[in-house]
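Q: What changes when guanosine-5'-diphosphate is included in the input?
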Amino acid sequence: MTAGLNVCIIGKPNVGKSTIFNKITGSHTSEVSEISGTTVYPIELSEKFKDLKINLIDLGGLKKKSKSHEKKQKLITSETLKKLNMSDVVLFILDGSDEITKNDKQLFRLILNKLKNIIVIVNKTDLIKEKLKKKEEYFKYFFEKNFPNILLKPIFISALKNIKREFLLNKLYDIFKNSQKLIKNKDVNNVLKSILAKHQPVFNKKSRPTIKFLRHVNSKPFIFKAFGNRLTSLSKDYKNYFVKQVLLKLNIYNQIIVIKFINNKNPYS
Ligand SMILES: Nc1nc2c(ncn2[C@@H]2O[C@H](COP(=O)(O)OP(=O)(O)O)[C@@H](O)[C@H]2O)c(=O)[nH]1
Ligand SMILES: [Mg+2]
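A: The predicted holo structure follows.
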């Protein structure tokens, strides 16, 4: 039996989701059209890559609720959410020839809140050839500024001219492999040491919160537990700093992590 990875393709209408779906699966299953809202029901196909079965799901475009009054649009929304909840990875598609909108931002936040792995794909690079460098900066900056608690490297493709199929499938494969294992205590605690060496929690009134041990406890989603003393008085700034450092030092891309700060129980009580 092969293990499966559910991957759904999400993005505003017309960014090229169905084209990407068809190119990756080598099919013509999903209807491509310049008319928004063509894909109403999710379309699913499985793709074998190495020892992994990748279930690719093309979803209709998701719009924010206030615009979902139309019956067709509502259907897209509820089906999309259902599939999103079941998926392991989201391919978040943006149109490179377009600006990022409030709609994209809301959608992205919704996916993050569900603790999904996310690969950001900027499509239609054939339309922005000479502006590619600027666009790369624009998209990179957008995510860094708005979503500092996840590390992302947007992937630039042209579904029509250069789909980068192998590259994308390998990315999915890596995510799958990472979700199968826990990072060793030794590695995690070396990271903890180096974080603390650079910047310790600040004193709160008279005492300083201390973090003594860090443990990776779950990889789907990524959850860490930090044990120590007086951790309830850790500042929000420090927690943000800490999360960011864990991401950077452990090289965790494409996923949000949760760190639970837990006060050590007194072993003598
Ligand atoms: N220039 C260009 N057009 C694209 C690309 N990918 C998709 N399109 C076009 O964008 C329109 C919408 O594509 P579609 O796949 O239906 O988008 P969806 O609504 O997100 O599923 C169609 O006219 C596609 O031919 C691309 O890489 N470059
Ligand atoms: Mg479509």
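Observations recorded in class: Residues 3-178 form a domain with the Rossmann fold fold (CATH 3.40.50.300).
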